[in-house]
Amino acid sequence: MILEFARARGGREGRCIGLRVALPCLLAFASLAGAGCYGVPTREAQRSWVQEGFGRRYTGDQTKGYYAGIGDRVGMQSIQYPDLQGVQEIKPDGKITVPMIGEIEVAGLTAAEIKDRMVPLLEEHGLKNAKDDLVVAIPFRASKRVFIVSYTGRVGNVVLRGDTTILDVLSGVSHQPLADTDDIRIYRGDPEHPECITVDLDEIREHGLTRTNVQLKEDDIIYIPPTNIGRAGLILKEALSPLTIVVGAVGGIIQAALVPARLEAIDQISQRIADGQVQRGGRGGAIY
């Protein structure tokens, strides 16, 4: 209807009126269409996405008591009942399969709590003295990690095995020359208002002052920022990226245009060789 109105007015004036009316309508429609995907999530949605501050189903503090997580392995040992002996990896649903019992959920529990959950179930199946005979441990631990984020865009993670400081983690990580290692930050805790801890790695390395050698906790985020020169370089790189794309595209077009000419030249040389006009010889069989 908008376009018909524009045609009715005719000429340049009609086209301008049509655009002035249609453009706001199109923008409004686009905003409504995108609101479902890009709008601000509701508080309920945020709570469902981020549980206990990091989106984990099973949380705790492994420095106070190691709790099992996905990918960890639970070991069981029993002298009285050899069938119980073995190691089970915790599956994505948080469960392990125990002989004579079946599946039980163990993720989020310590080794002692796993045993407390297993003993009544074993006694229901006629296993006596399970409390005194059964030994449960978590020998293989891989579910606790810290994340390293660099200004270069690289993201990595390191398994946190407990009693680990930031120097333990960063000593095995190569740093970019423009990394600001005296202003490394650790983010932890609340998803909207995380605790921020500043670490001066230069102070630790050059003077042995370890007051900022912080003990890490699971799901800590270690951010390595750039220096001022590095930040300026990133801005310049971002500003020049469209030009780089254009130059690359032009180069590809030119190269594609030259390919037929090169093929034609090769065909001409081959024909001259066939006609005896050119002889083979020289170093390495080159044509001269």
Write up this protein.
There is one protein chain. This protein is of the alpha+beta class and 288 residues long. The chain has eight helices and ten strands. The chain folds into four domains: 2-38; 73-140, wza like fold, CATH 3.30.1950.10; 145-226, Outer membrane lipoprotein wza fold like, CATH 3.10.560; 239-288. Strands 7-6-10-8-9 form a five-stranded mixed beta sheet, with no helix packed on it. The longest helix is centred in the last third of the chain and has 47 residues, at 228-274. The chain is extended. The model is unreliable at 1-9, 11-38 and 282-288 (pLDDT under 50).
Mean pLDDT reading: 75
Approximate shape: extended
Strand order of the largest sheet: 7-6-10-8-9
CATH fold group of the largest domain? Outer membrane lipoprotein wza fold like
Topology at a glance:
Elements: H1 2-9, H2 11-38, H3 43-49, E1 73-77, E2 86-89, E3 95-98, E4 102-105, H4 111-124, H5 130-133, E5 135-140, E6 145-150, E7 155-159, H6 166-170, E8 184-188, E9 195-199, H7 201-207, E10 221-224, H8 228-274
Parallel strand pairs: 6-10
Antiparallel strand pairs: 1-2, 1-5, 3-4, 6-7, 8-9, 8-10
Helix pairs in contact: 1-2
Descriptive tags:
five-stranded mixed β-sheet, 4 domains, alpha+beta, Outer membrane lipoprotein wza fold like, wza like fold, disordered N terminus, 8 helices, three-stranded antiparallel β-sheet, disordered C terminus, about 290 residues
Give the structure's gist in a few sentences.
With 288 residues, the protein is of the alpha+beta class. The chain has 4 domains: 2-38; 73-140, wza like fold, CATH 3.30.1950.10; 145-226, Outer membrane lipoprotein wza fold like (Roll); 239-288.
